[in-house]
Every structure is written in structure tokens, then in C-alpha cells.
């Protein structure tokens, strides 16, 4: 039996990067997926790609940072599939690196809306249905929410909020049989961690690799594998937990990645084919 057979999941930010990998991984394990994204995200493409492989998925487009839209997203899951078992709060943006004195207010408010508010609104909208199914929430934290990272204080602050928010929600929702957990990615091989496609400069990119015990970026599928575990019944005794998927960056000291065994430095091939790994919101405009 597949690990998510009979389950219904909403994945926000589901069309690009880690979100795409989560959608495809969950669908391959039997879940029915609502792929949620902003109107300009390749949501339809991901739905079609899942369908071609025999999976079940529908598209939802809109800003789930607005409560009405978040409720509409949940309503679509229930209308299409009859229930909701899993909410993946993956939506988020990473649009600027700068010291705080130079950090734009525009980027700050944009990240608050897309990182924090989306998680709050979707959780609020989904809980009535998750309480019925004794379901669970898994949200996107980050190494930046645990470590102090120069020129990333705003982004790290949004992720620290999510970690505290989900831990509090786990304590609150245990009374209703709902589990809540966080995945904390380190540097992952998406648009966000390449100087050509994201806000990091070359120095930051190099330091990320040096500071990671495995000496490389993780793959979106490696992160999706941990989401799969936490969302499945295999994690039935896990709630309020933060699972770091960071190649050891949060425990490393100095340029540890330079010493990594060469077997660690090669990305695994994985089982799913990604088309939108290097898309996603890395700027406001």
C-alpha cells in the first residue's frame, strides 16, 4: 500500500522548487493533491505532469494570504475530493539579501505577507476540516529561522515565526487529534541559492557550500522525502517537531564542507522528474 493512499493534501507554493517536488512525491504515494500557487506560477503544468503519471491533482490559483482565498482553497479540496487530511504550508518568498540598514521596507512587507500570513491564514482555514479527519500540518521553516545569518535577518525572522507558530499550534491542536510539524531546509538546489537566479551573491553561494557538512546543496526531492514522512501515518507519534534537512549546516563550524567525503558531494538522482526546480519568487517584481 502506498504511504498516502486515500489521503487528500493541499500544497501551497506547490508549482515550483520544493513545492513541486512535494506535490509529485505525494501523488506518487497515492495522495490526491490540490496544487496551490499564485496566478503566474506554473500550477497547471504541474497538475498536468502529475496526471500524465497517473496521479490525481487539481489546480488552485490565488493569494492564500487572504483569508477568503485560503477558505476557497480548502473548499476546493473538499468539493473535489470530499475531505482534507494534510496541509503543507510551503508557500514562501526570498527576495532580498541586505544588511538591515539597507533592507527595503517593500521586501520586508512582501515577505511578511507571503511567508507568515499565508501560513497563518491557510492553517486557520484548514483546521476545521483537519479536525474532522485527524489530519496534520507540515510547514516550511528554514536554517535561517534557527541560525543568525547576516543579511538574512528579515527572512530568518519570518521563518522563526513559523517555527514558533507551528509548535504552539501542535500544543493547541493535540486536543483535536491534529499533528503539526516543521521541516527546516538548508541550502537547496533551487533558484533561491544560485546567484544567477536568486538574491544571493557569489560569496554567499560559496559560503553556503563550505558551511554544509556534505559540501553541497540538497535536492528538492530530499526535502520532499521528509515532508512525506511527517505527513504520513509513519509519523503518528511526531508533533511539534522541527526536522532539519540541511546537510548538517546548523551544527557545522567553519568550512566543514571542504572536508566532506566525495560520496556526500554528489546529489542523488531521485525518483521524480522536476520541471520547475529553478522557478519561484526571488524578486518582488
Automatic annotation (TrEMBL):
Q: Which PROSITE patterns match?
A: ADH_SHORT
Q: Which UniProt keywords apply?
A: Oxidoreductase
**Could you say which EC number(s) this protein's record lists?**
1.-.-.-
Q: Which GO terms describe its molecular function?
A: oxidoreductase activity
Gene3D superfamilies linked:
NAD(P)-binding Rossmann-like Domain
| Origin superkingdom | Bacteria
Instruction: Give the EC class as a word.
Output: oxidoreductase
In terms of PANTHER family, this protein maps to: DEHYDROGENASES, SHORT CHAIN, ESTRADIOL 17-BETA-DEHYDROGENASE 8-RELATED
NCBIfam families in the cross-refs? PRK07231.1 (NF005559)
* Sequence similarity: Belongs to the short-chain dehydrogenases/reductases (SDR) family.
Q: How is this protein named in the record? A: SDR family oxidoreductase
Q: Give the source lineage, highest ranks first.
A: Bacteria, Pseudomonadati, Bacteroidota, Flavobacteriia, Flavobacteriales
Amino acid at each position: 500500500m502506498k504511504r498516502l493512499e486515500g489521503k487528500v493534501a493541499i500544497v501551497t507554493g506547490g508549482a515550483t522548487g520544493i513545492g513541486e517536488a512535494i506535490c509529485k512525491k505525494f501523488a506518487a504515494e497515492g495522495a490526491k493533491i490540490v496544487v496551490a500557487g499564485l496566478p503566474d506560477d506554473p500550477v497547471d503544468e504541474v497538475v498536468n505532469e502529475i496526471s500524465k503519471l497517473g496521479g490525481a491533482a487539481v489546480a488552485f490559483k490565488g493569494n492564500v494570504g487572504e483569508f477568503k482565498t485560503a477558505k476557497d482553497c480548502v473548499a476546493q479540496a473538499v468539493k473535489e475530493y470530499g475531505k482534507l487530511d494534510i496541509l503543507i504550508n510551503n508557500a514562501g518568498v526570498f527576495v532580498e539579501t541586505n544588511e538591515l540598514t539597507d533592507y527595503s521596507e517593500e521586501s520586508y512587507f512582501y515577505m511578511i505577507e507571503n511567508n507568515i500570513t499565508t501560513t497563518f491564514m491557510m492553517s486557520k482555514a484548514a483546521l476545521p476540516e483537519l479536525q474532522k479527519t485527524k489530519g496534520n500540518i507540515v510547514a516550511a521553516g528554514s536554517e535561517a529561522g534557527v541560525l543568525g545569518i547576516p543579511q538574512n535577518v528579515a527572512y530568518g525572522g519570518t521563518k522563526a515565526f513559523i517555527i514558533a507558530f507551528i509548535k504552539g499550534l501542535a500544543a493547541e491542536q493535540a486536543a483535536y487529534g491534529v499533528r503539526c510539524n516543521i521541516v527546516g531546509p538548508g541550502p537547496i538546489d533551487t533558484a533561491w541559492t544560485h546567484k544567477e537566479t536568486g538574491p544571493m551573491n557569489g560569496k554567499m553561494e560559496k559560503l553556503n557550500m563550505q558551511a554544509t557538512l556534505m559540501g553541497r546543496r540538497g535536492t528538492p526531492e530530499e526535502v520532499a522525502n521528509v515532508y512525506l514522512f511527517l505527513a504520513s501515518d509513519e509519523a503518528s507519534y511526531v508533533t511539534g517537531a522541527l526536522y532539519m534537512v540541511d546537510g548538517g549546516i546548523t551544527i557545522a563550524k567553519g568550512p566543514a564542507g571542504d572536508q566532506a567525503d566525495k560520496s556526500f558531494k554528489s546529489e542523488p538522482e531521485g525518483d521524480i522528474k522536476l520541471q520547475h526546480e529553478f522557478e519561484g519568487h526571488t524578486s518582488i517584481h
